[in-house]
Amino acid sequence: MPDVTNVGALTGNNALIFKAQVYLALDQALNNLSTAACWRGTVAPICLYQPVQFQQTGVPGLMGRTVVDTAVFAWSPPTAQMELMTPGPSGQTLQPLVRENLTVKVNKYGVGYYVARDTFFADVWGTLRSWVTKLSRPIAKLGDALLASLMRNGKVTADWTGTNFFATNKPQAPSGSLSNATVYSNLYTSCPLTPAGVLRMYNGMRAIKGEDNYSLNIKLDTLVVPAEQESAAMQACSVEYPVYSQTANPWNVGQAASTAAMGQNIVAIQRWIKQIQVLPELTIGGASIDTTSWYGLECANPERGGAPGLLLCDDAAVDMFFQLGNDSVSVWQSDTLAVAARKFSGAGYGLGQFAARADVA
User: Fold this and answer.
1) Which of 4, 76, 244, 315 is the Cys-Cys partner for 344 at CB 3.0 to 4.6 Å?
2) Which residues of 54-68 are buried (b: 16+ CB within 10 A; e: fewer)?
3) What are the backbone angles phi and psi of residue 267, rounded to the nearest 5°?
4) Would you say 291 and 225 are in contact if contact means Cβ atoms under 8 Å apart?
5) CA 293 to centroid of chain Cα atoms
6) pLDDT tens-digit series, residues 65-118
7) In Å, how far from its chain's centre is CA 84?
8) Quick check: 225 and 277 in contact, CB under 8 A?
9) Is the pLDDT of residue 349 over 90?
């Protein structure tokens, strides 16, 4: 396998050595760092971020660096309500304290390139020398890729409750403090990305209760969509007075045939959605359903301490590897240069009450 794959019209046999000029304007178009990480959000992160690297006290540098293998998230949910007390020593019912937890595995990820020394040195125009930029792109997008994989596979992947993360039968009280028949749904089918679809998800999340059967007061404020649904999300959340045809007016069922009517979009008027985050990595799997599915989360409520629906554990540091010097045994024996990077990161499902998925079909 060659260390450099040439794609295009110019080859070594037909290069116009004395008449041609090499321009690198197209290289910048692809090797750019303008693509910011989606998970950081524009108003608030779309996940609960937890750094997993620590420095041991009194041990400087690499020897004191510690990166955990597994991140454990633990909490104790409220499960009791106030009750009318009756006379007597047993007039008050006490509930046992409940502790629940979930884990996120922190894995090691790597990316790198290699090239023969003679090929690299003969690259007089510098087309192969943007090593660091090529490494920076996958490093910056790792968190997005991990979260996108969780989201698009959430209908078929179980979370800490034993149910698929996106499902219609999520247990309201995994601890058993309420009847097992008490469930909620964070999966919406036949729900296209329209004002009516956003309103349906908003109402559904507002109705979710905790293990004490009191409202969790969840307010949908973030949409995460593939690039194919960006314009639909903007239209659903920004157009205050849309015009509907007779067959497409969810607000006026009795509208006369072959007419148009204007309606008020409460989603836009109330400004419920604080941010629309485009996550192109949602379609990496190649499934057609991923181009139309969309997601809603509560992320911008400071009282929550973050966005508890999705979890991202990450070591902010990046380990770089350079195999470039002639004093390197590997370089000398293989006659090859190499640059690589490694990073510790992991993502997992959090609390399903705060995240929802909608499918068109």
Assistant:
1) 315
2) eeeeeeeeeeeeeeb
3) -60, -45
4) no
5) 14
6) 899 999 999 999 999 888 888 777 777 778 889 999 999 999 999 999 999 988
7) 45
8) yes
9) yes
Given a cut of 80, whether residue 244 has pLDDT beyond it is: no
What is the C-alpha separation between 40 and 188, in angstroms, rounded? 25
C-beta pairs of 23-30 under 8 Å, 24+ apart in sequence:
24/125, 24/126, 24/127, 27/127, 27/130
pTM of the shown model: 0.88
Residue 153 has what pLDDT?
A: 97
CA distance 183 to 174: 10
Mean pLDDT of the chain: 87
Look at residues 135, 111, 125, 127 and name the one whose alpha carbon lies nearest to residue 4: 127
Residues near 24 by Cβ (< 8 Å), separated by ≥ 6? 125, 126, 127
75: number of Cβ within 10 Å: 11
CA distances to 49, 70, 232, 341 from 108, in Å = 17, 12, 36, 10
pLDDT tier for residue 277 given thresholds of 50, 70 and 90? very high
Residues 6+ apart with CB under 8 A from 331: 117, 323, 324, 325, 337
| Helices 230-238 and 195-206, packing angle to 10 deg | 80
Distance from C-alpha of 266 to C-alpha of 240, rounded to nearest angstrom: 7
Q: Identify the residue whose tokens are 């295009």.
A: 8
CA-based nearest residue to 318, from 303, 297, 346, 340: 340
Measured CA angle at 186 (ends 181, 192), to 5 deg:
135
Beta bridge partners of 344: 108
Give the Cα separation of 331 and 337 in Å (integer): 6
CA distance 358 to 199: 12
Phi, psi angle pair for 44, to nearest 5°: -155, 155
Please give the single-letter amino acid code of residue 200: R
Q: Tell me which of 86-90, 145-149, 316-320 is least confident.
A: 86-90
- Would you state the structure tokens that stand for residue 340, as one six-digit string? 């690589």
Nearest-angstrom CA–CA distance, 120 and 337: 8
- Pairing outcome for strands 310-314 and 48-51: parallel
Q: Considering only the C-alpha atoms of the chain, give the largest distance between any 2 of them, rounded to a whole number of Å.
A: 104
